[in-house]
Amino acid sequence: MYVNPAAVRLLGAHDASELLGKPVLDIVHPDFRESVRRRVTTGIIENKNLPLMEEKLLRLDGVTIDVEVAALPIEYDGIPAMQDVVRDITEQKKLQQELLQSQKMQSIGTLAGGIAHDFNNILGIILGYTSLIKKNKLNVQKLSESIAAINLAVQRGAALVRQIMTFARKTDASFEPLNLEDLIQELFSMLQQTFPKIITFKKIFPKDIPFILADRTQIHQSLLNLCVNARDAMPHGGSIIIKVEKQTGEQLKVQFPTADQDSYICISVTDSGEGMNETTRGRVFEPFFTTKAKGKGTGLGLSVVYGVVQSHHGFINVESELGYGTTFRLYFPIPNINEKPVDSRQVKSFEIGGTETILLVEDEELLIEMVSFLLESKGYKVFVAQDGAEAIEVYKKHIQEIALVLTDMGLPTMTGMEEFKKLKEIDPNVKVILASGYFEPDMKADLLKAGAKGFLQKPYMSDVILQTLREVLDKKSI
Ligand code: ADP
Ligand code: MG
To answer: How far apart are the first and last CA of the chain?
Structure first.
């Protein structure tokens, strides 16, 4: 019905007549049409001012612009109408993106420094022990100790990778009803074995605590990070107390105005350590902020915790004073549904070996050797291919025999993905398990849709390989 001259310019029209009389949704970017339509309808029906919304508009010349829109219901010529005030924020958005990008670059620089150091230590340990073993001067006892040490180092490396991936939000969260008491118990038993004995643990867990919907691994990682920090803050010993309690959204709103759920679970981790001064306290959640010596801290721990809490729609705060210890509080919304938590102690038992024939596609000599040795020792017959082209050749030749293809995603020349597609063309029923160091959150879903039967997270772990193989082999193909 009406546009002012600024709107005419903003929308790339020559004059108002090009815009008047046209449906307003024509100039809204398709991604936003539905939400704008709903917003305007509610606004008119409820006769309410509409809060600011960021959306994208399509100019008449087809260019997309970012805008911020406020709207209020008015009367125009005696008819109920909406008046929109539109602000162009395209430039601002662009600057934000650039800032984010440059922060990312900065982070990567720091990351390289901190993490590389940790990785080098890990590799050093592995190298040290392997050269010991190579020299062949070890008795059986020493040999098994060395292997255990290598194993531990590898797990540390894998944990570090997980940490980085969680930080970069590259791992996909899987939300499930979570029994916090089990989880904390498990964490404590692990820590009691690894932390110095001068640190004591206490758990305060009332009876009526409901479960939360959460990603078990991520919550575990977060509490672990908090406990590790607590340990570092107590070089002369002390106590770590984890307390769980219920809180209403009303109580929480005072501190976090966006707390709009009815009730929350609060997990607090308290230590009796050295505490922090105000400057440190203000920066603890910053990625790569650390007060620890090189090689001791990466500054990632708390930013991971922060990210995890956010992805769970929760909140976090910290209370600390120099010399008086520290308390971190994590708040998670309590879901309204009544699902039963899965009992974490219920482990499925698997028959782990088999006699089927497996095609292993992997380019790393050592891994080929390790995995085929593992599979053969469990009764499988193994064909090996070192790249996608070879895999397809072998598969064609032994199509009747091969029950399953286990392939790496990162292969030379032809990616595992392309190879997978080709295999599907040859045999639509082919069973393929894809292995990779990490999967983008959406990637797994896409691959499943494309017919992948399973995934393996690298580094390969024997139990997991065997279990996944059996699971996929035993699934009836439809
Ligand atoms: P890192 O532990 O690698 O330094 P974090 O993100 O886990 O990285 O922690 C950042 C900083 O916050 C630490 O270096 C330390 O100064 C401070 N901090 C974290 N937790 C505690 C705590 N429980 N007591 C004292 N200081 C802490
Ligand atoms: Mg830390």
So the answer is: 58
User: Residues 229, 324: one domain?
Assistant: yes
Task: For residue 383, give the amino acid letter.
Answer: F
Match 């910290």 to its residue by tokens.
318
Does ligand 1 have an atom closer than 6 angstroms to the CB of 276? yes
**Best of 115, 272, 284, 294 for a ligand 1 pocket test (most atoms within 8 Å of beta carbon):** 284
User: What are 339-398's pLDDT values in tens digits?
Assistant: 444 444 344 444 688 999 999 999 888 788 888 888 998 999 999 999 999 999 999 999
Q: What is the CATH number of the domain that holds 153?
A: 3.30.565.10
Residue 334 has pLDDT above 70, yes or no: yes
Domain holding 74, by residue range, is 5-88
Say which residue the tokens 């903003």 belong to: 10
Q: DSSP string spanning 4-64?
A: -HHHHHHTT-SSGGGTTTS-GGGGB-HHHHHHHHHHHHHHHHHT-PEEEEEEEEE-TTS-E
pTM: 0.51
Same domain, 296 and 164: yes
Residues 181 and 324 in one domain: yes
- In three-state secondary structure terms, 146 is helix
Ligand nearest to the CA of 326: 1
**How open is the CA angle 400-405-411, to the nearest 5 degrees?**
135
Give the model confidence (pLDDT) of 256-299 as tens digits.
Answer: 888 888 999 999 999 999 999 999 998 899 888 899 987 677 78
Smallest CA separation from ligand 1 atom 13, residue:
290
* Residue ranges with CB less than 5 Å from ion ligand 2: 229, 301
> Residue 45: exposed, middle, or buried by beta-carbon count in 10 A (0-12, 13-18, 19+)?
exposed
In a domain, 63, yes or no: yes
State in Å: Cα 191 to ligand 2 middle.
15
CA of 470 to the centre of ligand 2 (A): 38
Residues 180 and 222 in one domain: yes
295 CB burial (10 A radius; 0-12, 13-18, 19+): exposed
Same domain, 204 and 319: yes
- Cα 82 to Cα 49: distance, rounded to the nearest angstrom: 9
Check which CATH number belongs to the domain holding 39 and give it. 3.30.450.20
Measured between alpha carbons, how far is residue 305 from residues 10, 96, 164, 167 in Å?
42, 24, 12, 9
DSSP per-residue letters across 373-433: HHHHHTT-EEEEESSHHHHHHHHHHTTTTEEEEEEESS-SSS-HHHHHHHHHHH-TT--EE
Question: 308: CA distance to ligand 2 center in Å?
Answer: 15
| Ligand 1 pocket residue status of 289, Cβ below 6 Å | yes
**186 and 235 belong to one structural domain:** yes
Same domain, 221 and 76: no
